[in-house]
Each structure stands twice: as C-alpha cells, then as structure tokens.
What does this fold into?
Amino acid sequence: MHMTSQTARSRSKGAAAAYRNKTKTYRRVSIALAALTAVGFAALPTFWLANTYQVRVATLVMMWMGLATAWNIVSGFTGYISFGHAALFGSGAYVVGLGTARYDLELWVALPLSFVLVGALSFFFGLLTLRIKGHYFAIATLGVAEAIRVLINYARSITEGVVGFPLPIDLILIDPKVPYYIMLGGLIAVVITAAMILSSDFGIRLLAIREDEAGAEALGINTARSKVIAFTISGAFSGFFGGMFAWILNFLSPESVLTPFVSLQVAVMVIVGGMGTIVGPLAGGLGFYMLSEFALVTAPRLNLLLLGSVLIVSMLFMRRGVFGTLMASRFWPRGFRL
Amino acid sequence: MSDLIQILLAGITIGVVYALVAGGLNLIFGVFDVLNAAHGEFIMLGAFTTYQLWSEGLHPLLTLPISAVAMFLLGIVVQLVFVEPVLKSSTIISFILLFGLGAVIRSLTLLIAGANDRVVFHYQGSVEIFGAFISKGRLTVLAVAVPLLVATHVYLKYSRLGVATKATAEHADIAEACGINVRLVRLLTMGIAAALAGVAGSLIAFLFPVNAQTGFTFIIIAFVVAVVGGLGNFYGSILAGILIGVAQALVGFYIDSELSLGVSYLALVVVLLVRPTGLLGVKAVA
It folds into this structure.
C-alpha cells in the first residue's frame, strides 16, 4: 500500500515535470510568435505600406485588435458579456478630442489622460453594473452606455452634440507613422497585460468566476473585487484606443464612437476569433476589420450583408470561434494555449 | 390637467407598442433562453408590409392581419433554420447569430427598397377626450394593441397550447416528459412573438415615418423594457413598457425631448440595482 502510493506519487511527479517542460516549450513558442508578429508590424511601414491610406488601415487594424483584447480581459475571462464598451472607447475619444480642441492640452498629455480617466470611469461603471448577473448585466451595460451617449449628445455647449467637432489642425499634419507606432505600443501593452493576467493567480480567479461564480465565492475568492479590477483594466485600455481613434479620425461625433455598433463589433470580433484566448481577439480583430474594410472599398452596399453572413456561418459551424474551436480539436497539442 | 392627460395618453400609446415588442422578446426568452437580436427586423418588415399594402390602396387596418401572418411564418422559418440548430449553445451564440441575421435582413431591405422614409398618411386629426386631444393614429394604436395584449394573455392562460407554453417555460424537460411537443411550442412561441412585433411595426408606421433602420433603433429600447420588466416574464414587459412609455413622455414634455430616451436607461439601471432580475422577474438567470 505504502509502496504503491509512493510509486504513484513519483510517477505523477514525473508527469508533472514533463507537463511543466512541455508548457515551458509552448510558452517559448508563443512568446517567439508574439515577438515575431510585433517585429513584423514594426517593420511593416518601412517595407510594405506604400501610402497614407495603407498606414491608416494598418493602424486601425491594430486598434481593433487591441480593443478586442481589452474586451476579452473582462468578457472573455469572466464570462460577463459587456455591451457597454462603446461608452468607454467613446469617452476616451472625447477625452482626447475635447482635451486638445477645447482645453488646449498637448496630445502627449491627453492620450495618457484618456487611459487614466476612462480607467476611473470604468471603475465606477463596473462597480455599478457588475453586481448584476448574466444577461441582465449585458443589457445593463448597454443601457449605461446609451445613457452616456445621450448625455454627450445633450451637453451641446461642451461637445457640440450630434454635429461633432474637428481636432486641432496640427494633429492632423503629424506623419501617420507616428500614430501607427504608438498604436503598436498600445497593442503590445494590452496583449502582454492580457497574457500576464491569464497566466497569473488573478487570471485563474477570473476564469473561476466564468466557470462557476458561486463556487468561486465559496472558495473564498472575492469575486466582486476581481471583476471590478478586470473591468477597470479593460476599460482603461479601451479609453486609450478611443483616444487614439479620435486622433486618427481628426473629427469627433457621438455617431462615430459611441453607437452600440462599436460595442457589438468588438464583441463579435472576440467571439468569432475565440473568447478567453490570447490569439482569438487578435485574429478576430484583424480578420473582421480587414473584411469590413475590404467590403467597404469594393462593395459598400454589400458590407453589412457580408458581415452578417460571416456571423451566421461562424456561429452555426464554429461556436467557440475560430481559435476556440481549433484549440479544442484533437489536432491541437494539448496544453498549448495561445 | 388636460396637458397631463394628453401626455399620459401619448406615453401609454408608445408604451403598449413597446409591450408588444418586449412581450415577444420575453416569451422567446422565457421558453427557450434566446435573446432575439433579430426581433427588430420583424418590426421593420411589418411596417414595410403595411406601407406597401396601404400604398396599393388597402385600408391600413386591413393590412394588420396580413403583416401578422407574414411575420408569424417568417418567425417559424427563422426558428427552424437558425435558432433550433444552436439551442444547446449558450445564449450569446444565438444572440450573435441572430444579430448577423438581422444585419442580413436589414441590408437586403436597403438593397431592394432603398433607405428613404415611408409615411402612411391615413390617420389625420384628433379626437377630444375629457378635454385632452389624442390623435386618431394614437387612438387606433391603443384600440389595436390593448386587445392584442389581452388576446395573448388569454392564449397563455386558457388555451391548451398556451398552458403547454407556460409549462415549457417552467421546465422544458419535465414538460417534454409529460408529452408536450416542446419543439412545436418553441416554433409557435417564435411565430407569435414575431407576429406581435410585425403588428407593432405596422402600428409604428401609423405614427412615425419608417425606414430600413426603424427596427434596429426600436430593438434596443425593447430590450431595455424586457429587462426592466423581468426577462422571460410577458406581464413584466407590459408593466415596464407602459411605465417607460409614460416616463419618456413626461420627461419629453416637462424637461427636454432629447432626454426622453435617457430616462429609460436611467430606469433600467435603477431597477436592476434595486431588483437585479427586473420588476417581475423571479429567477436569477446565470
């Protein structure tokens, strides 16, 4: 009896060591992949992107990838689906827009400010809504976001309402490669944050909330605190990407940043890519934005039709998203999470 | 005083239209846990049906049954082709799928019919009730929507299929074990909800200009109403629809019409914080 348990233990010890070695290899592979991608994006403007339009599209691709990753931190990890990220993204855009156009802030002050202020806003947003569970949470976030949109529309004396306002001309004249590299920095930062969360104890707590919130609570996890922290991190990054968007767009109105479409689009990107994974939101953001940009350029009238069809087909046949389905298939090496 | 009655009547009118739409959403959610993101397209298609038939010379009231039957059939097709295959997955999957379907329907409508507004010029002038004036359009809306809500209630409470619907909502497995054809119940529920939304769309066309985006703008507020009433609760959506309709009318008149939408979102947040499952919701949906 004693002997067998010892052999079993040593065998399991061996298996654990093998598993750890394997995951270490996998981690190296994924870090190498990520570094390679980052270098690729960094080199892109010098080697391939020919004109301003292409640089801008590449910048926006990275923005959607980043926003999708930020959304995934709260909704993919905890399972609390947020339809309110348009408000966080839009508030970030308005921090930079109003900051530079109305309060004469330097862009280099306004951009970090969008991260900080929207982080604070998200803290309260999360505190308010995260007590609400399940589908009620999703609709509540939509409601709060719409309320913020109504307020920004209404505060006409500050925000110009639905009409919108342009950003200062000197921001428009900056070389488009500058926002490109800043966006790249932002994207790398949010992906590293998400990956670090996913491999930390905090990340395991978030996943526990997704799998069984009552069970997680019973184990002594402060689920309320974990959720609010995740929401704040997610919101701060969303605000930053919104601020970047205002700069790239040069013109700001509620219609362009605050509509529920923004929230839905981010959710769709992550769900089609693969919720709760690192590579899923990146692939979803890249694929979905490129597709909609391609459709917009080649057949603007078919844009919505094409995107709707993609959603229908992917939800009918790949319910866990492209990478979620791939990682659950038997061809995928076990333990290798991207 | 007559101002107040007038505002209340206007609020109740829009409130019963919300109730028709949100009531359908709640029936669907109550029976098979799907949030129908394509529900707005039933509204839009219902409105378009009424406009089309009216412009060809039919009396607007006669277009209502046609729009209801057409949407009932479309609802059943949607259920069979798109919803049934994903019923076992989580709600977010069917939500995104139906959102995609809604986008497809909307863009097809835009391609075929264009983006311009359509107006049904039929109900003009108003009627005086207790010193308050109510437009004939609103009066017609009330005269159609209220009996329709009552009819749905009678169906749910007294008909065999209605009782089967409630049993399925209560516990689908046990209902099936008792010999209820739950698949048929699901099909009928989606059909009825779609028909209610179609009629709501037709009624909206009596009051406002409609276009391809009409359904989509309406559906967000309908979801708010459904949640405030309590997801899955048909009666909750009637209560919440009327409350939110009246609140919107009051704020629109006494404060600022631009804030009238905002008050419904405020109501949503306040209600959910006090009662996390809505006014009449009981089960916490996880």
User: Anything to note?
Assistant: Chain A touches chain B at residues 81, 128-129, 131-136, 139-140, 142-144, 146-147, 150-151, 153-154, 213, 260, 264, 267-268, 271, 301-305, 307-312, 315-316, 319 (CB under 8 Å). DSSP finds 16 helices and two strands in chain A. The two ends of chain A are 41 Å apart (CA to CA).
